[in-house]
Design a protein that fits this description.
By secondary structure, this protein is α/β, with parallel strands linked by helices. The protein has 17 helices and 13 strands.
Length: 507
């Protein structure tokens, strides 16, 4: 008996992963498969500037594109250009080969939109939100020791490096990660890596309430494996640590790194120790569009699982023009879960960092998308869309306690304290409602007028610069203890008044 086909809002069709043919690009026509799989070849041939991009693309990109790229780098960009061939190859894979048509396809490409932004991508009136901040999550304020953010009661973030093998335009740690741009003089880690890691381990020994350590950066693919393995084995010596998560976009952006035999052998050694001690060891990566998920990505994820990690999970960023439709998200999640053995985990709203306004989505859009993707994926593989609220932390997008749609201000509470609330009353941190802001250009006209006028919140810049000045420096702690910074009670400091930070002292 034939059953009628039910028309669904989203129709799943299994689609095989594809590695685009890199030889379609003039500069790579002689590159062999063996070279392409070589991590060192990928690093050595990464694109860092327009000249190197021209060498790869030849005449396929018109001068208009390079003019847009130069204008963005000079005026707005918060991140330098760094594109491994693996990443660049996923942009405009099926584009026509005439220059005008290829350029149009390249400009429209969703991976290009966040990995290689150009000036015309940015919003002309609101390139940054009026309350954007370089360290928008105030992670520095919660440094227990340099690079160790203690933001949640049982979890810490350990930043082992300030570099990546690829740079995303919307990077939430743009204040620290990468080399400086004309708009942004980056903060710098002061301590030698060995000294910084020693202080981190010492703090964790003295703080047994921490059971979950996210080891990140930057990107762990840029930490020499022997150093990383030593740190991880010493973490595993701490009986209080029960979860270790390794953060690396390079699983997607440079899978060749994680396919190196020496790296996989090291992962297997660490995973074996974790298994003996019943510690959950996982890898977190970062894919934002289905085009980024290729057979090499799937091979790297499977190799990590075979080496003994419990899960490879994806934490993406929700961005306009990249993945802000139900189809975009479901296509990506089915490719990750069904074809690459990567578990869809989170999609964050893009943070309130400078230059990100054209990527950010309003809260109501994220709420709609969360509802629209329900019921298609297995429950354990249905990602949560979350808002990382300054001074609060990650919250599911439906957890806002109040939402003013006209002005684009949502309010959030939390159920724990950090060092920043140490001086308040017992309920002060739990009762306080913290704001989060929708992108101004998505508001109705009355909301846009309000943000442009005198009634906007204190600290709001009426004509926002592309990149606000950095926040004031924090002195490093005299001893490796948690900093005694107090929760601010006044309105946010105006961006123009924020003094530069020479280096990250006590995050």
């Amino acid at each position: 008996m034939d059953h009628p086909v039910i028309r669904q809002p989203y129709q799943y069709v299994r689609t095989a992963l594809v590695e685009p043919d890199w030889r379609r690009l003039p500069g790579w026509r002689q590159v062999t498969a063996a070279q392409w799989r070589d991590a060192q070849w990928q690093r050595a041939h990464s694109v860092r500037n327009a000249r190197q991009l021209r060498a790869v693309a030849g005449d396929l990109l018109t001068d208009r594109f390079y003019d847009e790229l130069a204008a963005d780098q000079a005026d707005v960009a918060t991140m330098p250009i760094l594109l491994p061939p693996q990443v660049l190859n996923t942009m405009a894979p099926g584009a026509p080969t005439t220059p005008e048509a290829f350029t149009e396809a390249f400009l429209a490409d969703p991976v290009r939109r966040y990995m290689l932004p150009v000036h015309s991508d940015r919003h002309p009136r609101w390139p940054s939100h009026p309350l954007a901040e370089r360290d928008s999550l105030h992670e520095t304020d919660m440094w227990a020791v340099e690079g160790l953010t203690h933001r949640y009661p049982t979890k810490v973030l350990a930043e082992l490096t300030a570099t990546c093998p690829q740079y995303c335009g919307q990077c939430t740690r743009m204040d620290l990660v990468g080399t400086s741009t004309p708009q942004v003089t980056k903060a710098r880690l002061r301590l030698r890596p060995a000294d910084r890691q020693e202080q981190m381990l010492d703090y964790l020994k003295r703080t047994p309430a921490v059971r979950d350590v996210v080891v990140s950066g930057g990107d762990l693919a840029n930490v020499p494996w022997p150093r990383l393995e030593t740190f991880l084995l010493r973490l595993l010596d701490l009986g209080s640590v029960r979860d270790i998560r390794l953060a690396s976009k390079a699983v997607v952006g440079l899978p060749q790194h994680w396919l190196q035999p020496g790296v996989l052998e090291g992962v297997a050694r660490v995973a074996a120790v974790a298994a003996r001690r019943a510690v959950n060891l996982a890898v977190h990566t970062h894919a934002n569009h289905v085009r980024s998920v290729t057979p090499l990505v799937a091979e790297a994820a499977r190799a990590l699982l075979d080496a003994g990690v419990r899960d490879v999970r994806n934490q993406g960023v929700l961005m306009r023009g990249v993945n802000d439709t139900p189809e975009d998200l479901l296509d990506l999640c089915f490719a990750l879960q069904g074809e690459a053995n990567v578990l869809p985990y989170y999609f964050y709203l893009c943070d309130l960092v400078p230059g990100a306004e054209h990527w950010r989505t309003p809260l109501h859009r994220a709420q709609h998308l969360q509802e629209a993707i329900m019921g298609y994926l297995p429950g354990y593989a249905t990602p949560r869309l979350v808002c990382d609220v300054p001074h609060v932390g990650k919250r599911w997008v439906h957890q806002a306690v109040e939402y003013d749609r006209e002005r684009g201000i949502s309010y959030w509470t939390k159920n724990y304290r950090t060092s920043l609330e140490a001086g308040g009353g017992p309920q002060a941190a739990l009762d306080r409602r913290r704001p989060y802001y929708d992108p101004v250009d998505t508001l109705p006209e009355a909301g846009r007028r309000w943000w442009a006028g005198p009634s906007a919140p204190p600290g709001a810049t009426r004509t926002p610069p592309a990149v606000p000045a950095p926040r004031a420096a924090h002195a490093p702690p005299a001893a490796p203890t948690r900093p005694a910074a107090q929760e601010p009670t006044a309105a946010p400091e105006p961006a123009a008044a924020q003094a530069p930070r020479a280096a990250r002292g006590a995050r």
